[in-house]
Write a structure and sequence with these properties.
This is Dehydrogenase. InterPro entries: Amino_oxidase, FAD/NAD-bd_sf, Zeta_carotene_desat/Oxidored. The chain is an alpha+beta fold. It has 3 domains: about 15-65 and about 240-325 and about 430-485, FAD/NAD(P)-binding domain, CATH 3.50.50; about 115-225, Guanine Nucleotide Dissociation Inhibitor, domain 1; about 325-425, Alpha-Beta Complex (Polyamine Oxidase, Chain A, domain 2). It has helices at about 35-50, 95-100, 135-145, 150-155, 160-165, 170-175, 180-190, 190-205, 215-225, 240-255, 295-305, 305-310, 315-320, 365-375, 395-405, 465-480; strands spanning about 1-5, 10-15, 30-35, 50-55, 70, 80, 90, 110, 115-120, 125, 235-240, 260-265, 265-270, 275-280, 285, 290, 330-335, 345-350, 355-360, 380-385, 415-425, 450, 490. The chain has a 7-stranded mixed beta sheet with strand order 10-9-18-19-20-17-21, with helices on both faces. Strands 12-4-3-16-22 form a 5-stranded parallel beta sheet, with helices on one face. Strand 5 (about 70) and strand 6 (about 80) form a beta hairpin. The protein binds flavin-adenine dinucleotide. Flavin-adenine dinucleotide (FAD) binds near residues 39, 56 and 266.
Length: about 500
């Protein structure tokens, strides 16, 4: 069923049930482990329905991979530094619905503008401004892209390309989870330029190396972001830092509903019943636990919880196989002058060894813009999504800055006034064959639910939207246990245009 949702065309996966009570009857308690998108979504939506929730977050602030924290520059100015620039795509129906709770019009989001892919070898291309509806978007992209001349299109293996348009949760994973994304793309027979500019860039943005990544997972992401996305590839970004725009308002709303947030509290063990033990020796109990930590942390908590392995051997085995992928690097640089005016807010980079994207923060975020105007400089953020292992943040900054100079010559003579740089290793791996052991939201541990961007999902979703959607499914499972109606869940069309129709 297709419905319009805030001006967007969305597919309703879970309907609300006005015939059921909105809130749980009687006292129900839950502990949510992890305060990123998944954890805060779960905590807030449970609290809305009358569940008494305690949210435990290891770090000093909420947000996880979307967090922001304060830093003082050598010039004495105070800035919020984010975990990295994020694109809020318009088909993120569930995450946007969570955000609408703090700002019904999502007025803190602004279109990020054209979205070019740049390289040293070829002129830039853009995904922006394409028709919204598939397959018109695909046809328009192929027709207008200089990477795809008619002559070259003839070399394309149409049969090999069919799975792109025929996504189906069961069939696609059955056929392609055992194939690497690289082998799948190789078989398409794309001309090298189209492969590099249109497909490799897209695949790299999923934080995994093509050689290791499941082709099924990549096909799902193509389906979700492009081939079945009725909102187009344009995206929005907050005009304020993420703490101001997202986390403080969500926290206030949760606390107003009686929810309790404890930051700086690291969970060590979870034992059936349910008892959650935190570093320092304290134990808390609740009827339900939502484990919304990042994949590596979820695996470590399960490994330290012997009772969980006895109680739920399937889940324990699945969590033991959850993996993190290549490191990613985020470097934010405050410089002494601006880039050329025609540079986009966000550019994807093709064919550089390290650099995958460039964000001009001062052209989208209010505070960065104020600093840049005052200082006459720019605030540039560089990302490597699947970086080489074993390098320090400083080494990765140096490489990315060097590569930037080859792409945008005006940066070569800039003076860098300050750098904030990090390497992260908490992004989920979607390795070849991993779907078979990937745990879903509902587990064989009665009362324990999983949420996060690494959890197995029944409909297409990725990254921030996967984190929020899995959390809503976890909340709905708890509400169902207590006779309350579910929250609505939305998706893009779950199947590809050419997917074979299923027998009912
Ligand atoms: C550089 C970068 C750029 C990105 N760009 C985009 C983008 O453009 N679009 C997009 O959709 N997504 C993007 N993402 C991905 C997005 O950030 C994630 O998909 C999303 O934030 C995951 O949310 P989560 O709640 O599942 O996990 P997390 O954000 O990892 O949250 C898990 C939380 O659990 C906490 N935790 C861990 N262990 C414990 C413990 N033992 N006890 C208590 N708490 C614990 C962690 O501290 C963390 O706060 C990007 C990510 C990065 C790193």
């Amino acid at each position: 069923m297709i419905r319009r949702l805030g001006g967007e065309r969305a597919h309703l996966v879970v309907r609300s049930r006005p015939d059921l009570p909105r809130t749980v009857t009687g006292p129900v308690t839950a502990i949510v482990v992890g305060g990123g998108i998944a954890g805060v979504t779960a905590a807030l939506l449970l609290a809305e329905r009358g569940v008494t929730v305690t949210l435990l977050e290891r770090e000093a602030q909420l947000g996880g991979r979307l967090a922001a924290w304060p830093r003082t520059l050598p010039d004495g100015t105070r800035h919020m530094v984010e975990h990295g620039f994020h694109g809020f795509f318009r088909q993120y129906y569930n995450w946007r619905n969570v955000l609408r709770r703090i700002d019904p019009r999502l007025s803190f989001l602004r279109p990020a503008g054209r979205y070019p892919i740049i390289s040293q070898e070829w002129p830039e291309e853009s995904f922006a401004g394409l028709p919204r509806t598939p397959p018109a978007n695909l046809l328009a992209l192929l027709a207008r892209s200089p990477s795809m001349r008619l002559r070259e299109l003839r070399g394309l293996d149409g049969t090999a390309a069919l799975p792109l348009l025929s996504y189906d949760r069961e069939e696609t994973y059955r056929r392609f989870d055992g194939v690497s994304a690289k082998d799948f793309l190789d078989a398409l027979g794309m001309p090298p330029r189209a492969r590099a500019m249109l497909f490799d860039v897209f695949a790299h943005s999923f934080f995994n190396h093509q050689e290791d990544m499941s082709a099924a997972e990549m096909l799902m992401q193509f389906h979700f972001y492009f081939l079945r996305n009725p909102e187009g590839l344009d995206f929005d970004a907050p005009t304020e830092d993420y703490e101001t725009a997202v986390w403080s308002p969500l926290a206030r709303q949760f606390e107003a509903l009686g929810g309790r947030i404890r930051t700086g509290v690291a969970v060590e063990r979870i034992e059936p019943g349910w008892t959650v033990s935190v570093r320092g020796g304290e134990s808390l109990t609740a009827d339900h636990v939502v484990l919304a930590a990042d994949p590596g942390a979820a695996r470590a908590i399960a490994a330290a919880s012997p009772g969980l392995a006895r109680h739920a051997p399937v889940l324990a085995g699945q969590l033991a196989s959850v993996a993190t992928t290549a490191p990613y690097a985020v470097s934010r640089l405050w410089t002494d002058r601006d880039c050329r005016p025609e540079r986009a807010v966000f550019s994807s980079v093709s064919r550089e060894a390290t650099l995958d994207s460039i964000t001009l923060y001062h052209r989208i975020e209010r505070a960065a813009g104020q600093w840049a105007r005052r200082a006459g400089g720019s605030v540039i953020e560089l990302h490597a999504y699947a970086a080489p292992t074993g390098l320090t943040a400083a080494e990765l900054t140096k490489r990315m800055w060097g590569e930037l100079g080859g792409l945008w010559p005006e940066t070569v003579d800039m003076t860098i006034r300050h750098v904030e740089e990090r390497v992260g290793d908490d992004a989920p791996a979607f390795d070849v064959g991993s779907d078979a052991t990937r745990p879903g939201v509902v587990t064989d541990a009665d009362g324990l639910y999983l949420a996060g961007d690494w959890v197995r999902m029944p409909f297409p979703s990725a990254l921030m939207e996967r984190a929020a959607s899995s959390a809503i499914l976890a909340v709905n499972a708890i509400l169902d246990r207590h006779g309350a109606g579910p929250h609505q869940v939305w998706s893009v069309a779950p199947r590809g245009l050419l997917a074979r129709s299923r027998r009912p």
